[in-house]
Amino acid sequence: MSKNSYKMCTRCVMDTEGTDIEFDENGVCMNVHAFLKDRSRLLKSDMEREAALEKIIARIKKDGEGHEYDCVVGVSGGVDSTYVIYQAKKLSLRPLAIHVDNGWNSELAVQNIENAIKTLNVDLYTHVIDWTEFRDLQVSFLKASVSDAELPSDHANRAVLMKVAAKKNIKYSLTGRNLATEGLLGNNWTYSTLDWKYINAIQKCFGSIKLKSYPHLSLFDILYNVAIRRISDISILNYLPYNQKDVLETLEKELGYRRYAEKHYESIYTRFFQSYILPKKFNIDKRKAHLSVLILTGQITRKEAIEALKKSQNDLSQMEEDKEFVQKKLGLDIEKLDSIMNLPIKKFSDYPNNSQFFKFYQHKRLIALVRFLKVFHVFPKEFASRSAGN
Q: Are residues 278 and 390 in the same domain?
């Protein structure tokens, strides 16, 4: 890209590097417009959010009567999931914390999880993914040359959460997904975390072993657990005041939480992938999305974000250490990793996937069907609301 064609949004710090992006006549990117639309739809007044949260908590408690737990919460050691489990206890819920160990936890992440669980007196269920399978799958995604090579972790997390919830007859999964710190993303950076067909297709194409124990969700699994078992994901942080600075200070004070250099750096692989592979191969700097959301929610200024982007994502010595560690752990020598880095960039659409289903999921005819079934209590309210776009 020539310097003359480079452009940065006049309202946030999203730009033309590494993403498909469009701007309006004022130089404001479409990502900003999409974010503001979502925020106006989901984040109502404080009074409305408090009332909605009160109803949600009452429903969770009622549906959890007679059971050991009334909700599950995935914990990674990151700020969002830690704050969810903290708020769950503060709201007098009975959460079961679930951690999916994919072999990449940093020591700090392990300590943050242990501190939170112990301080809050919460039960923890840990699922350890078979490392031989998972390593092969991660290498497959690197060979596939797509920018969403973290999907194997994201999909496994959602699969374990849903399956544990189903087994223990828990109807609610509280997630750390939120608009306040991650409500904006590059248009072509990643694909749906739910598409098992896509993940399996990449493994069949590039993998050396069959995935036998890797946690996954087929379309049938998703529809059955949502429509029949009535398991709902609830983005509880969207109903709470969520200022990143204040949240970090609260967690540090209450749980002995320790910060990471950047968002999602609780995972060594994520730290390496986001600070080395994404910017070097795909020209993607995820900090731009994270910082842009903070600008739009008034947590930092645009000037502060631009200054933050001038700094390296990771200390050079740390990056070299991570690179060596990741290579050894994945069984890749320097030449192999370099050859992977030089492969032509691909998109998810270059591989078999269920994107047509997910498009249909958002289609007005399906929305109408979901609303109809909602009347007969076939779909949980949270799922119906998401499908119906209200």
A: no
Nearest-angstrom CA–CA distance, 118 and 276: 34
> Are 155 and 193 contacting, i.e. CB atoms less than 8 angstroms apart?
yes
State how far the Cα of 150 lies from the Cα of 271, in Å rounded to an integer: 11
Residue with tokens 């992977």: 340
Cβ atoms of 88 and 71 closer than 8 Å: yes
Shared-domain flag, residues 314 and 368: no
Q: Is residue 223, in this structure, part of any structural domain at all?
A: yes
Q: Are residues 332 and 388 in the same domain?
A: no
- The answer to the question of residue 3 being in a domain is no
Whether residues 200 and 227 fall in one domain: yes
CA gap 292, 287 in Å, rounded: 8
Residues 6+ apart with CB under 8 A from 326: 268, 269, 272, 332
pLDDT, one tens digit per residue, over 329-359 is: 999 988 999 999 999 999 999 999 998 877 7
Domain range enclosing 329: 46-349
For residue 365, the tally of other CB atoms under 10 A from its CB is 8
b/e 233-254 (16+ beta carbons within 10 angstroms → b):
bbbbbbbbebebeebbeebeee
Task: Answer for the pair 264, 270: CB distance below 8 angstroms, yes or no.
Answer: yes
Q: Show the low-confidence residues of the chain (pLDDT under 50).
A: 1-2, 363-367, 370-390
Q: Cite the beta strand spans of 129-272 per DSSP E.
A: 172-174, 232-234
Provide the number of structural domains found in the chain: 2
Instruction: State whether 286 and 377 are in the same domain.
Output: no
**Residue 92 contacts by C-beta under 8 Å, 6 or more apart in sequence?**
57, 61
Identify whether 273 is part of a domain: yes
